From TrEMBL:
Record-linked InterPro entries: 6-PGluconate_DH-like_C_sf, NAD(P)-bd_dom_sf, UDP-Glc/GDP-Man, UDP-Glc/GDP-Man_DH_C, UDP-Glc/GDP-Man_DH_C_sf, UDP-Glc/GDP-Man_DH_dimer, UDP-Glc/GDP-Man_DH_N, UDPglc_DH_bac
GO MF terms held by the record: UDP-glucose 6-dehydrogenase activity
NCBIfam families in UniProt: NDP-sugDHase
Keyword Transcription applies: no
Protein name per Swiss-Prot or TrEMBL: UDP-glucose 6-dehydrogenase
Top-level taxon in the UniProt lineage: Bacteria
């Protein structure tokens, strides 16, 4: 099949690379000319394990090309996918301007002959498929187009693996010929029960429900960790105890500094906003969001407690800047808020991230020192905060760490270190919900 994919962010680029790897002919479109030039030369603009290799392989095989304009490839494509950003608007809703622009461009590009499938792969409010169809028809009322919803569930850091081995593919369309085309497109990825076929609105809702459930699960376990601290329980044991119940499962129950990234924070808010516009008050979503907003500031409370109310002049080492390991994405990373607060309080901050160092720069205050190695971060530090649980940080020897620090306070914001080993080495160790 021939595909045009509009937008080369995580979703558009990873989908483009994976569909071409599966043998389809793919043209990826982006407005940013330098990004398109970079992609044409086989260089990935994002850090994503396994992506660049497949990008180069499929460009060489002639199945994957890049363009700045969709008008050449869209009319000859079996499927046109919209994969542009839907960032958070000021009122918490999804900002739809990029999707609407692409819809107009598609309407202008498609001829009145042929049958076209347009897919919303971006995370969009319920009702968007109808809206996109209306915009396309406003441009060209004769075009025969099915606008469908096929939401994306990949995770950054394992995006290629997730796309090639999906738990399920959701296809939202009420038009039989469009359904047949989309089932065929995905047949090497999912068949049988792994394909969830539904209408457009339910598919759009599935994406928000999935992300909001996962975000709520994280806020729930963070709430349990916070309560455990107050009552003297240990969250690791609590998770073992509840996670062994198959109805709960141990997955996605890591207490820490809360969820960041480009999806959960904005999608919980967008779903809440959607509910409000339909006069429904989504109490659970408000709570998940509020708990998450507060959680990332826990290291500051602990530092103030440790240093008797003032951290002015204290040297604080930050381990990890990206919103999670195996990505260089800094969108809504807890490190940004934490570091700004530390600097405001007069601390001297040295920070390290194995991959996100450059991506982090524009988000951080100028007087933060970004260092090349993790050892340089904690040399002479009064306190260390682990924010992102990169594998290399887990291999730190607590005795070596203590020998290089000036102080002895370590805040493990992701419960990634061996608490007993740290305490036995003489470190004043604080983990989230672990101190009992
Ligand atoms: N990032 C993820 O892990 C992920 C996973 C699942 C779903 N999603 C959803 O997918 C959508 C895309 O997210 P992302 O992180 O991949 O996006 P992104 O914001 O990283 O990138 C979007 C790209 O679209 C391009 N673009 C904007 N307008 C364009 C136009 N008119 N024509 C061509 N290109 C245009 C931009 O230049 C940019 O390169 C969002 O709705 C997001 O919520 C993201
Ligand atoms: O037990 C956990 C699991 C995750 N997190 C945090 O939650 C955030 C999100 O993590 P993850 O879901 O792994 O990353 P994303 O790449 O943001 O992926 C989510 O958002 C995507 C965009 O919508 C969806 O496609 C994915 O299915 C969904 O997992 C990160 O800050 C993690 O540190 C925790 O705090 N505790």
């Amino acid at each position: 099949m021939k595909l045009t994919i509009v937008g080369t962010g995580y979703v558009g680029l990873v989908s483009g690379v994976c569909f071409s790897e599966l043998g389809h002919e793919v043209v990826c479109i982006d407005k940013m000319e330098d990004k398109v030039a970079q992609l044409r030369s086989g260089k990935s603009p994002i850090y994503e394990p396994g992506l660049e290799e497949l990008l180069q392989k499929n460009i060489q095989a002639g199945r994957l090309t890049f363009d700045t304009d969709l008008s050449t490839s869209a009319p000859s494509s079996d499927v046109i996918m919209i994969a542009v950003g839907t960032p958070q608007a000021e009122d918490g809703s999804a900002d739809m301007k990029y999707v609407h622009t692409v819809a107009k461009e598609i309407g202008q590009a498609l001829p009145s002959t042929g049958q076209y499938v347009v897919v919303n792969k971006s995370t969009v409010p319920v009702g968007t498929a109808d809206q996109v169809k209306e915009i396309i028809h406003n441009m060209n009322e004769d075009v025969d187009v099915a606008v469908c919803s096929v939401p994306e569930f990949l995770r950054e850091g394992s995006a290629v693996k997730d796309t090639m081995n999906p738990d399920r593919i959701v296809i939202g369309t009420s038009i039989p010929w469009a359904k047949a085309r989309l089932v065929q497109l995905h047949e090497k990825l999912a068949t049988g029960d792994k394909i969830v076929i539904t209408n457009e609105k339910s598919a759009e809702m599935i994406k928000y429900a999935a992300n909001s459930f996962l975000a709520t699960k994280i806020s729930f376990i963070n709430e349990m960790a916070n309560i455990s601290e107050h009552v003297g329980a240990n969250i690791d044991d609590v998770v073992r105890g509840i996670g062994s119940d198959r109805r709960i499962s141990p997955h996605f129950l890591n207490a820490g500094l809360g969820y960041g990234g480009s999806c959960f924070p904005k999608d919980v808010k967008a779903l809440a906003n959607m509910a409000e516009t339909h006069n429904y008050e989504p109490q659970m979503l408000y709570a998940a969001d509020r708990i998450n907003e507060r959680q990332r500031f826990k290291p500051l409370d602990q530092l103030l407690k440790k240093f008797n109310g003032s951290i002015e002049g204290k040297q604080i080492a930050i381990l990890g800047l990206a919103f999670k390991p195996n990505t260089d994405d800094m969108r809504y990373a807890p490190s940004i808020d934490i570091i700004h607060e530390l600097v405001k309080a007069g601390s001297i901050v040295r920070a390290h991230d194995p991959i996100a160092q450059n991506a982090a720069k524009p988000f951080l205050p100028n007087n933060v020192t970004l260092v090349e190695t993790m050892e340089e971060t904690y040399a002479h530090a009064d306190a260390v905060i682990l924010i992102t649980e990169w594998a290399e940080y887990k291999s730190i020897d607590p005795t070596d760490l203590l020998a290089q620090m000036r102080g002895n306070f370590v805040i493990d914001g992701r419960n990634a270190f061996d608490a007993d080993a740290y305490k036995n080495a003489g470190i004043d160790y604080y983990g989230i919900g672990r101190n009992s």
